[in-house]
Design a protein that fits this description.
The protein is an all-alpha fold and 312 residues long. It has 13 helices and no strands. The structure holds magnesium ion.
Length: 312
């Protein structure tokens, strides 16, 4: 296995394991999260878990939508937005790309956007796009934009912004997806998280249109705010990136993401994608990977991605 491919596998499994690991802790305030070493796929006895009916090791909306995106990018690396949005709708309605065809976690904004899409059929106009519509629902799924071959950072930026449109069309969300995808793209090629983040910020600052500068500065200023692990896209991005920068292995990174409380599955999914790339598939604890349901779906997508990459 090449190093690059090990990092891609690590990124996808890192995202899915992070999501599944965070599901039982979702909505808990940080004070209610178990001690660092006790954060596992099965929370300790006595912990009141979110989604108690969901089997341990099941990814949620984050993982499912990332797989829908990867599937679309495998079919067409330039991303057919209509086909992608149909995939999101199939997830919402029938549990497409879930381990057991059961949807248990739907963001309010995403639900409104997909219901609009079901009525108007236009992936460019179905999303709410006020400033308040900047949840982390498109950031959590954008990672596969870093896996398909791109000839320039501009390609990665365009792809990441584009995939945000059907549910999170506000520019702030689009730019958050672009920053994260650029960082991941460089890390897939072997950059450290610090270097990749520097590169991503420089690349965005060097390419955004004048009219986008205000929103980019709001996004980048988020780096100065304390981590809250919330659902707001700016806080979510930096909460996750800080966990990657402040830890030295996958396990500690994910546990520190979940320790922030609140939107634990998504913070851990976003951090887990980057940490999985950096430490590779081998860096993900075996017991967490073995506990993940639906691995057949993941392996099928990875083998199709591998075939395409071998042809290019
Ligand atoms: Mg979720």
């Amino acid at each position: 296995m090449t190093d690059r491919w090990e990092r891609i596998r690590g990124g996808l499994y890192g995202l899915l394991v992070g999501d599944a690991l965070g599901v039982p802790y979702e909505f808990s305030p940080p004070a209610a999260i178990p001690a660092h070493d006790l954060i596992e796929m099965s929370p300790p006895a006595g912990f009141v878990r979110a989604h108690p009916a969901v089997p341990v090791g099941t990814w949620s909306d984050d993982g499912a939508q990332a797989l829908v995106l990867l599937n679309s990018l495998v079919k067409d690396s330039s991303l057919n937005l209509k086909q992608f949005t149909e995939g999101l709708l199939a997830w919402y309605r029938t549990g497409y790309m879930t381990p057991d065809e059961h949807v248990f976690d739907v963001g309010i904004q995403t639900m409104h956007a997909l219901e609009n899409y079901a009525r108007n059929g236009n992936p460019l106009t179905c999303s709410p796009s006020d400033e308040w519509n900047n949840g982390n629902g498109s950031l959590m799924r954008t990672l596969p934009c870093a896996f398909v071959l791109a000839s320039s950072p501009t390609d990665v930026i365009a792809r990441a912004k584009h995939q945000s449109m059907p549910t999170h069309a506000h520019l702030r969300s689009q730019l958050a997806c672009a920053l994260y995808s650029l960082m991941a793209w460089r890390m897939v090629d072997g950059d450290s998280p610090v270097d990749a983040l520097d590169y991503a910020q420089d690349a965005l600052e060097g390419t955004v249109h004048q009219s986008e500068r205000h929103e980019l500065s709001i996004l980048l200023d988020g780096r100065l705010e304390p981590s809250q692990g919330s659902g707001y896209v700016v806080d979510s991005l930096w909460s996750a990136i800080r966990c990657v920068l402040a830890t030295s292995n996958y396990e500690d990174c994910l546990r520190s993401a979940i320790a922030l409380g609140n939107d634990t599955d998504t913070t851990a999914c976003i951090a887990g994608g980057l940490a999985g790339i950096f430490y590779g598939e081998r860096g993900i604890p075996d017991r967490w990977k073995r506990a993940l349901n639906g691995r057949v779906i993941v392996e099928d997508l990875l083998s199709r991605l591998a075939r395409i990459q071998a042809e290019n």
